[in-house]
Amino acid sequence: MIIEGKDLSKYYGSGESKVVALNKANLEIAASDFISIMGPSGSGKSTLLHIISGLDTPTSGTVTFDGKDIYKTDDQELSAFRRRRIGFIFQQFNLLPVLTAKENIIMPLLLDKRQPDEAYLKEITELLGITNRLSHLPSELSGGQQQRVAIARALIAKPDVIFADEPTGNLDSRSGNEVMEMLKNIWKGFGKALVIITHDSRIAQMADRQFAIVDGVLSEVTAR
Ligand code: ADP
Ligand code: ADP
């Protein structure tokens, strides 16, 4: 098991305005899992994603990575975990507009004072079909190309797990399908765990392990 979330609850506010965003969720992510988490808006998907990936503390419950409680380590260790072990892909791509595609891709390494592995950079950008776009600014790229740059950025630090939050939410169906195909190829080819958050059942069904979340209650839909 790479990441194990146990009895995770998250409350916002208190008294009359208390919101139970997540209610005793359990989620185990193994090395080569392809997991989807599907639920309507407001069901707790982002909350779960943030907690399981080290971005936000749960009100109760634990998240362990390689057997270690990530919220009991110091801030430095937690941020190293996020930088080195996890890759993130967002709905809005979140590329820095003043940097070229290549600069965006290698930024996580530079922030970590590491140098990119050029051979690996070449391998992933070829796989993603963006080698001839590396000197372009995000504004010069289509949505699908921007998301492929964001996927390369998520991969560059060779993480164990990739989390994708509505990765096709901003794309038309054709580029959305392309991006999903590429994510699937990357999952197969690089042996990483892939966790996709979506409200689209078609995308959810591409995963091996499918979860549903309703009002903060998470349940596995696929039999193990
Ligand atoms: P989803 O990602 O499925 O749309 P969220 O995890 O964002 O759902 O939200 C789950 C619930 O928690 C919603 O009712 C939302 O309004 C509430 N919520 C999320 N973040 C906060 C916050 N920072 N403060 C208060 N309520 C929040
Ligand atoms: P998405 O579902 O597209 O990922 P959300 O709209 O759920 O995005 O949430 C975007 C951000 O706003 C998150 O960081 C979440 O914590 C915060 N948020 C969501 N709902 C609320 C709320 N009711 N009050 C305050 N912050 C919220």
Describe this structure in words.
The chain is an alpha/beta fold. The protein has a single domain (about 1-220), classed as 3-Layer(aba) Sandwich (Rossmann fold). Helix content is about 35%, strand content about 25%. The protein contains seven helices and ten strands. The chain has helices spanning about 45-50, 75-85, 100-110, 120-125, 145-155, 175-190, 200-205; strands spanning about 5-10, 20-30, 35-40, 60-65, 70, 85-90, 160-165, 195-200, 210-215, 215-220. Helix 3 (about 100-110) packs parallel to helix 5 and helix 5 packs parallel to helix 6. The longest helix is centred in the C-terminal third of the chain and has 18 residues, at about 175-190. It is globular and about 55 Å long. About 40% of the residues are buried. The mean pLDDT is about 95. It binds adenosine-5'-diphosphate (2 copies). One adenosine-5'-diphosphate (ADP) binds near residues 46 and 165.
Quickly list its features:
4-stranded antiparallel sheet; alpha/beta; 7 helices; 224 residues; ABC transporter ATP-binding protein; single chain; binds adenosine-5'-diphosphate; Rossmann fold; 6-stranded mixed sheet; ABC_transporter-like_ATP-bd; nucleotide-binding; ATP binding; 33% helix
Residue-averaged pLDDT: 94
Fourth CATH level, the homologous superfamily: P-loop containing nucleotide triphosphate hydrolases
Number of helices: 7
- Percent helix range: 25-40%
Strand content: 25-35%
How many domains? Answer: 1
CATH architecture: 3-Layer(aba) Sandwich
C-alpha Rg (nearest Å)? 17 Å
Number of strands: 10
Are there runs of 5+ residues with pLDDT below 50, and where?
A: none
Helix/strand-derived class? alpha/beta
* CATH topology title: Rossmann fold
Keywords: ATP-binding, Nucleotide-binding, Transport
Pfam families: ABC_tran (PF00005)
Family: Belongs to the ABC transporter superfamily.
Protein name: ABC transporter ATP-binding protein
